[in-house]
Design goal:
The structure holds two protein chains of two kinds. By secondary structure, chain A is mainly alpha-helical. In chain A, 77% of the residues lie in helices and 2% in strands. Chain A has one domain (2-121, 183-382): ABC transporter involved in vitamin B12 uptake, BtuC (Orthogonal Bundle), CATH 1.10.3470. In chain A, helix 2 (40-58) crosses helix 12 (257-282), helix 3 runs antiparallel to helix 12 and helix 9 (211-233) runs antiparallel to helix 12. The longest helix of chain A is centred in the N-terminal third of the chain and has 32 residues, at 2-33. The radius of gyration of chain A is 23 Å and the shape is globular. By secondary structure, chain B is α/β, with parallel strands linked by helices. Chain B has a single domain (2-229), classed as Rossmann fold. A six-stranded mixed β-sheet of chain B has the order 6-7-8-3-9-10, with helices on both faces. The longest helix of chain B has 18 residues, at 167-184. Chain B is globular, with a radius of gyration of 17 Å. Chain B starts with a strand and ends with a helix. Classes of the chains: A mainly alpha, B alpha/beta. Chains A and B meet through helix 10 and helix 11 of A and helix 2 and helix 3 of B.
Amino acid sequence: MLSVLLDTLFDGISIGSVLLLAALGLAIVFGLMGVINMAHGELMMIGAYTMYLVQNSFGGLGGVWFESYIFLALPTAFLVAALGGLMLERWVIRYLYGRPLETLLATWGVSLILQQFVRSVNWAMVIGLVLWGALILTGRLLVWPRWGNLPWMSRVWVIAAGALAWGVGALAGERFGLALEEPWFGAEGVDVNAPDWLQGGIPLGDFQLPASRLFIISLTSICLLGLYLFLQKSPWGLRIRAVTQNRSMSACLGIPTGTVDALTFALGSGLAGVAGCAVSLLGSVDPNLGQEYIVNTFMVVVVGGVGNLVGSVVAAMTIGILQDLFSSGILPLLLGDKNPLTGFFNFFATDSMAKVIVFALIIIFLQVRPAGMFPQKGRSVDA
Amino acid sequence: MLQVASLDVYYGESHILRSVDLTVPPGQMVCLIGRNGVGKTTLLKTIMGLIHPRRGSITLKGESILSLSPDQRARQGIGYVPQGREIIPRLTVEENLLLGLEARPRGSRSTKIPPEIFELFPVLKTMLSRRGGDLSGGQQQQLAIGRALMGQPQLLVLDEPTEGIQPSIILEIEAAVRRIIESQGVSVLLVEQHLHFVRQADFYYAMQKGGIVASGLTQNLSQDVIQQFLAV
């Protein structure tokens, strides 16, 4: 009985760790810019697919490579997701600052685009996109300045280049057939095979601590510690905290707020990428992976109190453990057959019904504490 | 040092500043006076780049700064002490001071707080680890000036530094500003209601309804002008 309870607790903490990892990025971005990034889950998905790609290319070499590919995959996923986030900030969100509703819709659109992109990406498409990018870059560096940088000209150039690139991609697909047109991943889920040392477990009494979950918990702890040190001790961390609290004054002090925004967004997205790696160890990776996590991640940020690391930690763990407590069906087991509550808990003992009851609890909680578990306190708030 | 010429600023359709001209000579202190709501703070915010003018020019050391963002202007040597102090509330006093270093050119940054700051404002030294938002108004004002000085500005822009502060601290702040001008040759643009402080300036400009209506040497600032543009 005790071991079952411990098992549930442990599973809950590991689910909470994944949520926390995802929520950290969302929390710092929301705290800094007031931007709700609906595409955050898709950045997780990109991280998970990066993990899959690294596994395929390096894990396939076998031996030591397969045992250690994960340590290459983590920084790669961080960088890829950070780059994706940077592009999102530069090309979409930057134009929508101060308009939270539009940002919400725009990032939601981006999340749909990213999902479909992962489903249908193939070589023909990549060739087209790379060509388009190269043409735009050429235009920007070589052609536009010579022709006097007219605004309408750059637009015409971008559209024409897009048409040309699309045509070349389609033609290439036609010519070489499936070799170029077969989707890389497809709509089905792909599986990441964890190295052997992550597949076993550490025996503790009469039950086993699964190594992959231990790994996820320690990964989250390291990221949390790293983020804390970065925010509290580094010069850029100081700038981020200053801009979070008073944007216009920070600018008047000489802090380049645009750079701070881009950096923070990249950092938050990178953390989402790492969270994606962690998720890929728990189950199969599919294009909808982000959607499954984004709502829970938002809940963590809201329940914890915006811009509060400690709050995020406590909220993530609470939500993770509650979720697992209800879905694992351990409560009816503990209460026994006779108890009238057993039927009630049995009814909620599936993944989706557990979500229902957790959200109901969150709604009740927010009625009592609308600002979350740890609202900001002190003179600056009261004033 | 700073030259503002025929500046027009609008909030939406309402015309706030009407063809404002103003000059701050190097190493001098210029005071801007006028009643509440005549556009003094708007003028300072426009100089800082927080508000964009519709017409007119702003030049610093002979170069236009109109196209620069606030952080670029700060790095060009403008230190800004806004109305209401705007201390970053949940950073410590030390961190607030260190943020002042952001305005210095890259490469010449140290991470230490120079002792001059504590000579000017001894009270700050005892509060380095307190949160900026928990300080009293007078302490915050001293912190805000200290923070601006950390960037070694060539032009210090002060917006009502004595607002809501007890008389003895006003005298301290006054003395500190005078000492800064003498020791570092900084130019100062000051918005002020407190007459004793106004008299420390070299030049004055009086504003009414968004325009400059009188200016001259402060020693010639007559009771009439004060009566006309400051008295309620």
